[in-house]
Design a protein that fits this description.
With 315 residues, this protein is an alpha/beta fold. It contains nine helices and 14 strands. Helices cover 31% and strands 27% of the residues.
Length: 315
Amino acid sequence: MDKIISIGIIGPGKIAPRFVGGAAFVDNVSIDAVYGRSFEKAKRFAKQHNISTVYETLEAFLADPSIDLVYIATPVVVHKEQIMACLHAKKHVLCEKPMLVTESEVNDAYALAKAQDVLLMEAQKAPFLQSTQWVKEAIKKGTIGDVSYIEASYGFRSSFSKLHWAYDANGGGSLWVLGVYPIAFFLSVLSDDDIVSYSRKIQLLKQGSDAFGHLQVQTESGIVGSLSSSLIADQINSARVYGSEGMIIVDHYWKSTSLRLISYSGDIETLHFDDPSDFTPYIQHAVERIEKGLTQSPIYNQYHSLKQVQLITST
């Protein structure tokens, strides 16, 4: 029988319940511990989700030898400290996006994961979905001919409090909060085609972060990408891949279970996929990589985290 991977959660906030729901579809995992800044909130979360152990301090949480994998669901401003603490404690780490916001942070974290022989992975959803993997293979096979252009966006009129970390100049703004989604999709479907040029345009908020961001990129093969994000406007939240013979449209591409394949002759085919949750595929992938003894994901890894930083912080 395969070993059960014991998961501990840091940050029982709004996104953590969805992680718990996604993990329910993954074999050989058990969520057994939680730590949060508010002990009372962590206890309520544990009761709601049948989690056996609640810790008052991060030190006590990390000292628990039974915890194999830590899921970090806290604001980005504390990611570096928490990631490094987990890695020093020889825990595998899944960290919410954006995982880290400077190249040195990314390189230091992956170097420590390798030294400690544990997995470090950014909790991106789109790269691991069946719909994304289908698009990747369709581009390779020429299903819609030669691809020339990909656009992807994610934006909405934010209702976040003005004190929310999403508006922080350090790790906040539309590109860090939402732009990582279109970036992840683009990097994933063109994994063998490196970005060789890029530019960034942003509209700033008073806090110093961006309200709207747009990235124009081009790959080695010449494919152009238009990637955008917004905290002030409702965008068409889809990914569109344009080829010489047709196009692929993936609505809500970070959680999609379907896509449309449209030929220029007028044929439209809708394909459906059976991912049970948008969280399940990346959790399953992380568990399988741990079982194989890997310290990085072959699908989304140090290269991709570094490319995110470079694109979002470009001038």
